[in-house]
Structures are given as C-alpha cells and as structure tokens.
Amino acid sequence: MIGHRHDDDPHRPTRTTFDEPPIMKRFTFAAATVSTLFAASALAGTNRPGDAMRALQPTLSSEPLPIQRAANEAVAPAGMVGGPGLALMSAKILTCELDGPGYVNNGVLLVKDGLVEAVGRRSEIEIPGDYEIVDVGDRWLMPGMIDLHAHVGGTFDINDMVYQANPGVRASTAVIPANPQLRRSIAAGVTTVLFIPGSGTNVGGQGVLMKTGPKTYEEAVVRNPGSLKIAQWGNPERWAIGVGKSHHGYIIRGTLARGRSYWRSWKNFESSGGPEPYVDPQWEVFRYLFDGDAQVSVHTQVHQVVMSTIDIIKREMGLDVFIDHGTFDGWKAGGEAYANGVNAIVGPRNVSMPERGLIGWTGDNPERVQGCAAGYWEMGHRMVGFNTDSPVIPQEELPLQAAIAVRHGFPDDGLQTVRGLTIVPATTIGMGDRLGSLEVGKDADVVVITGHPADPRSAVDAVYVNGERMYDASERRLW
Amino acid sequence: MKHLNSLNAAAFAAALLAAPTLWAATAPTALGLAPTTSVAADDDEDEKEDEWHLVAGGDVYTGTGAVLRGASILIKNGLIHEIGYDLFVPEGAGETDVSGYRVYPGLIALGATSRVTTGRFAAEDPTWAIDPLSDPDEWMTSFEDEDLDLPTVDQDGFKSRYIDSYDPFSPYMTLALANGITACEQSGAAFKLRRDGIEGVVMNEDTSTNFNMRGGSARQRTRDGFAGAAKYLRDMATWERRGKPKDDEPSTRGVDTNSLRVLRNELDATFFADDRLTLLAIARLAQDYGFRPIVQGCREGWIVADELGRAGALVVLDPRERSWNDPESLYESGSSIENAAILHRSGCQIAVRTPSASIDTSGIAGRDLLSLSLQAGYAIRGGLDEEVALAAITLVPARVLGIDHRVGSIEVGKDADLLVTRGDILHYETLVDLAFVMGKIAYDKNKELYYAHLQPHQIAADLEADAAAESEDGSEADDADGDTDGDADESGDDD
C-alpha cells in the first residue's frame, strides 16, 4: 500500500458512502495503525488495546464497506441513490449560492441519486413523470446548515493536554454517529459539523468533517482530516505552568515549521526518489495541509491573535486557514483577514460588552454592545459565518448565532445570515463544490423550515441528507 | 385569589374592546384600586401637582389580546389613566409622539439573579460577603457553623438586604431595561426597575412559598401538611356552625402554617419539579385540595399536561430545556420543544424564563436575561400562539409574582411600564427604543451607551433616501417609520 498517494485528484468530491474512507488512500497502513492507535488510546484515556481497536474499526476494515441501506431494498425511496427522483416544491427556496440572488420564489428542487439535479422556478423546471412530488407549501427550503466548531460528534475526550502541540491526535477516533446531540442538530437543520478537538493546547489535533444524520461512521464522515485544530490565546494559556500569547506564537510557528519539513522530505522522495523518509504519525497531517487538501481551523478570539494567525499560518506558512470561534474584538483585524483570504467563522461569544461599570473580560472596551459579526462586516470582511462551540452552546442553537448577529448590527439585506450558516462555512472548509448550497450536482442536504432560519420562531419540519428524509417533525418534533 | 383578579381583568379588557367608552370607568374596580377617573379624587394632595404624560399615536399591544392602532395612552402620576383616541389632555401634560411605533407592556423576568438590581458586587448569600483572602478563618468556618443564623428566603432578614442593595445606577439595570425588562423577580421579591430612585421598587414579597414533592417521603410530608390544614379548616367551619362554643375551639397546634395559608388563598404554593411523576403528584395534590400550583421547571410537563391543566397550574418553564428521553423507560420522558404549547392547550398558564437568569457580560448573547423576548420565540417554535407567548413574558409572570394588578399589560389603572419599539417585540431584530417605568422614560436607546449605534438597516436606508429626496425637491418627506418594522420574515414573502 506504500506509495499509493496523491494519484487521485485531491479536489475530487469524495463519496465516502461507496468508497474506502479517504484516509486509507493517503496514509500508509503502518502510519494509520500507529497514529490512530496512539490517538485512540490517548483520546479514550485508556491503555487497553481493545478499546483503541474498537475505535479504529471503521478505518482498519479492508472489506467492502456496507453500502447505503436503501440501495439494498427493492425500490429505494425517492431522492436516494437507486430510487426514483424527488421533486420538492416550495414557496421559497434559499439556494444560497455564493454569488447571485441566493433564492428562488415558487421553486422546484429536483433530487436524484442523493444529489441536486435541478433547481429553479416552477415555470422553468420540467418534472419528469416518475418523480415523486412533495409540495411543502409556504414552507421554505434551504441547504443544510454547517457548523465548523463543534465538539458533539462523539465522546468528549478530545481535549488531551499531553503536549502543547498534538497534531497527531484525531477527533475521528471519538465519533459516535447519530448520537443524541447530533439527532438534535439535524432536527435544527444542521446537517454537517466539523468535530474538532478542544482548545486546551495550541495544537489540539485533527478534526473530522461529518454529517449529522447518517447512522454509521462510513456514511457520516465527509472528510478526515477535516482540519487541524489550532488554538490561539483564550484557552491554551492554561496548559502546564501557564503560557502567554508570545509563547503560543512560538509553539505554533515551531510546530508548523517542523510539519513543513516533514512534508518537504516526502515531496522530495516522491519527486526524486532516494531513501524513504520515516513515517511519523505526529506529522502525517501536514502532508494534507501543505498539499492544500485540508484547512487549519484556528480558535481565534481577540485581534492580536487574529493578526498572528494571518501572519504565521497564512503569510509565513501559506496554509489554508480560517478564523474559528471568532469572538470579542477580533473583528478589528477583519479587513486584514479578508484581504489575506482568511474567512471568519464567528461565535459563540458573539458580542463584546463595554466595561464601564460591568465586569471586564478582555480589555476590549468598545463603549457599546458590539456585535462581533457586525464588526467583521464593518471592517469590510465579506466571508463571515457562524459557529456554536457546541456543547458550550447547544448544537441546535447555531441559527441563533445568526439572529444575535443581526440583532447587533450584522446586515441581512442579501441573505448574509443564511449564507453564513451554509455556503460560507462550506467554502471555508474547502467543500464549496459539494455542500452549502442548493445547486446542481451538490449533495441534496435540504431543510424544510417555516421561515427565516435565524428566527427562533421558525420551526424545521423535515430534513433530507443525501436525498434521504432523515428527520420528520410530524413523527416527533425534537426541536 | 389574585389570579382570578387578573383573569377578570383580562375578561374586562376583552369586553372593553367592544365598548371603548367604558374603558376608563370600569377596569380599576376589577383591580381593586381606587378609581382614578377624576381629578377631584386627589383633593388631599392639593399641594402636589398631578403629573400628566401622553404617549401618543402608537400601535398599542395591550398584552390582553387587544391591539389599538394609532391609539394614545394618557398617564397620570405614573399610572395609566386612559387609553384611546381623541383623549382630553390636561394642560401642561408632557407628550411623547410614538406614531409609527408599537407600544408593549414591559417584560417581566422571573428568577433573576441579584446582579440586575444590585450591580456588580452583589452579595447573594451572606457567606459570599466574607472575603476568603482577608478572612480565611472566618471563611472556612462559615461553611461549618450550622447554627449561623443566615437569613433565607423564608425568613425575615432578606427583605432589607435586597432593598438596601438596590442600585438604581447599576448598568445591569440599564441593560435589562434596554432589552425590555421593567420588572423582575429576585429571591421571592418582585422588583420594579427604576433608575430615578428606590421608592416603591419592591412591589411584592413573600407571596409564595416552596413545597417539596420530590421523593416519596417529601411527598408524604407535604400531603400530610395539607391534610392537617384542611381538617383544621373543616373543624373550624363545624365549630362556627355550632355557634362557636367557648371551650371547643379547634387548635392550630400541629397544623402546617404554610399549607393553611395556601388553602386560605393567602399564599401561593410553588413547586420546583421536572420529572413526570413529581408533576403528577403535584397536580393531584392541587386538585385534591383545590389550589392552583405554581410549577417551576416542568420539563416533562408535556407528558402529564392534562393533569396539570386540570389543576390550573401556572407553569414557569424554559422552552429550550434539553434532556434526552430515557430509552429504557416504557413511558415518554425528557424535554420537548412543544412543552409550552401542549401545556397551554391543556389549560395551564405559561410563563417563560431564560436558560440563564443573569446578565452575561462575557459575550455570550442569546441565553441570558437580555434575550427574554427571543426566548418566547422558542415557545412559538414549539407551537404556542404569538399572543400567548407575549403573555408568557408579561402578564403571566406578573400573576406568578402576584403583581398582575399593577403590571403585565396595558390597562387603565395599571402602572405605566411601557416599551416602545419599531417592530414586533418577539422578532430577534427588534430593539427597545424607549422604556417607560411608572410613566417616566427610564431608557432611551439613542441616549444610552449600549445600543444607540444600532439602527434598522431598512430604516437607515429609508432615512437616507428621504433626506436625499428632501434635498432634491425641498418638500417634506413622509415619516420613514410607517411600515418598516425590520421584520425580515415579511420582506421575503413578496412573490
């Protein structure tokens, strides 16, 4: 299996349901075993190999993975792979494409084989005769929402503060597909989460991008590694004796520099041969990162560390990086971030409070109740999304982050909030060609909702994931 | 009982909608207040001039179901004197023109922490007042000394404690007013949020007492208490029928005072309970002894809603409550977003509280007291009517606190605690522009530090356009506030 690397197009949409997990293609068997065993033992807080092996099962299986349940049935339900097509008719479809109006009134959405086949006005779309028609009336359709800062994808043992930098640690070993919190997520219309390690150390490990609905790991995972989680000031200072911003910068820069050397040695080996470099599970992730196949998600709270994120990770290392958990006065560096292509995912500390007479938290004293997302927007940033940091804020309250942003000055005259819940995070995590909008060829992750998603009063009535109706409030409303 | 009073008041309001001319004349009698219909009634206060203020031309959402478009509210000495059209306004009355705006009753927050009225260093518990750094020994012993005479909610000591620490300059109070809260409950006392003094800020105290129904022995004790009190009342009635023979008066010895006061309608009974069985026990107890319980929490209330409805419970709940159902149970369990709606359908009155009872300054907005209006939105998400959801943060909390004769709706005779907004108070984009407390402006968004920079985008654009048009043709532009309520829901439904 050694040498089976980068022979396929890294930007090809990975269809994990019918394929090997992408991780197997890229990691050598030995690397995967060692690193995941290491990670699994560390994450599970146990030394019993059985536990780690159980956690590894999805990754180590060399047998054909189970195909989607419905495909085994005589006739799959409409919209799913192998089934007839599905036509969803709605008074308003929030298509959420990055450029364009972002909505269609009196629209039809055609779903075939789990993908969006067509979307447009009723007068423009011809519905084939064998398609099942579902008219949702005056409810709206929108793409499934995406949360790029979530910790509820599985067990909570994802904040191992062993070293100050743990790039080899993987959240994927802790995944519990379709767990109760994820059931609640999908009931809120959140169909994809980036399940990431905690922020107790500067480099917490590798997150996994996964869908919330499917009941098996193979079906749920979208990409692993989803991101490398780096945490700037705001949490990692509690590591060991306590360290500050400059030490954080030193650790992050040092880790990335070593990772780059590791990536270079493999690059050289692949292009010009020679002795094969040793495999180090601690550094394997950097081969993805420096190839541009995964992003760095940076827990970035205040403006100083937004600057150092741009400076170290983007300018110096050239990595695809985004601000995650953007809070407090980070927006002050919003213009610089946008100019450098660093997207801002904001929340859950979504306002910055004046300190006069109140308890001071950060030294930021905006002399008004300053909305964080509004701040980024005012600084000219145009790729602003939202996250929850679940379970700090329950996963189902992702849309509330958009409501709070609007309440505190974030504009919504061009569906910025809905885009910030869908296509902006999808693009940010490098999945803009597969997730985040209702465009032809994309995953049919569709939410049926009674109104604007940011409004707490709007209820999600049904959710489709890959064309499969995975939540139906008429059976039992979970949220 | 005071709840019945308020029901009457609501019924009156409905009747008054049909006959507006009766408005000023009838409502105060229902509220048990001195009628304030004539100036002559205040003869004994000649030396003090009456203060009149007119809140003119707003769409008045009375909170009892009625909406009066473009109506005016005449305020006299802090109380609502008259509501309607073409009112006679005495000379010298102040006026606030709110045409194009909406007027709502002030919101009432239940179970607030003392931070709201006492500011930053509130001492919620006397042990907190002991500084562990300067007094380590005393701090340690404060946990051990069981005989330490700590004032609790049920004892007398706390009353002065709260009024003494009331800080009308607290910025937390400004923030609360900025988000529509004009009254709140703290540790069993109902406070009005006044920034111009501390006179009369404690509206009510000790109107309720807690009973414990959690667990078998507690249930038995509580039930025994009510049984004893009921027997005492029966014996008293018999004794009175017999002509009150001198040597045979029933003794109060061993009779639970609190239970007795509940049965005499002198006190409300509050229960903190979440699980189905405890709620069922409360509902049955209340039906057996004929009182209306206040149920705090009520997470699994939707499962036993019929019983709670039959008991006429006032339920204080958090619609965002989350707990998973027990997969091993044969019965329904856990939280439901539909809790409020199901309970209301069954006959309960619903008050909504926020997940956090404090005011958050750490930047997490959306879960603290300041998002009370959004919180009602989650009850609507679960199926509650918008009107009922508004009552859940105004009139019903007032009933829970026993202050519904003074606040919770816009009715003649009640305190003039009003909110002025550009749009639907239950919409997440709507901010409070003005808050009146006792007829005086206690908060003006454009004059305070916190939210003055936030103007609805549509209105800001309209104002700019109007200004441009005005400068072009020199004519006066229409009022820009007319129909733009910043309601994003409406803006999308044009096709």
UniProtKB/TrEMBL annotation, chain A:
Gene3D superfamilies linked to this entry: Metal-dependent hydrolases (3.20.20.140)
Signal peptide: none
Amidohydrolase-related domain ranges (all copies): 415-468
Gene Ontology terms, MF aspect: hydrolase activity, acting on carbon-nitrogen (but not peptide) bonds
Pfam families reported in the protein's UniProt record: Amidohydro_1 (PF01979)
InterPro entries on file: Amidohydro-rel, Metal-dep_hydrolase_composite, Metal_Hydrolase, Metallo-dep_Hydrolase
Alphabetized PANTHER family for the sequence: ALPHA-D-RIBOSE 1-METHYLPHOSPHONATE 5-TRIPHOSPHATE DIPHOSPHATASE (PTHR43135:SF3)
Name by which UniProt lists this protein: Imidazolonepropionase
Organismal lineage: Bacteria, Pseudomonadati, Planctomycetota, Planctomycetia, Planctomycetia incertae sedis
TrEMBL record, chain B:
Signal peptide range: 1-24
Region of interest called Disordered, as start-end residue ranges on this chain: 462-495
Molecular function, one GO term: hydrolase activity, acting on carbon-nitrogen (but not peptide) bonds
Iron-sulfur keyword on record: no
Pfam families per record: Amidohydro_1 (PF01979)
Entry keywords, A to Z: Signal
Annotated ranges, domain Amidohydrolase-related: 334-428
Key word ATP-binding present: no
InterPro entries in alphabetical order: Amidohydro-rel, Metal-dep_hydrolase_composite, Metal_Hydrolase, Metallo-dep_Hydrolase
Taxonomy, superkingdom: Bacteria
Ranges of Acidic residues composition bias in the record: 463-495
Name of the protein in its database record: Amidohydrolase-related domain-containing protein
Native source species: Rohdeia mirabilis
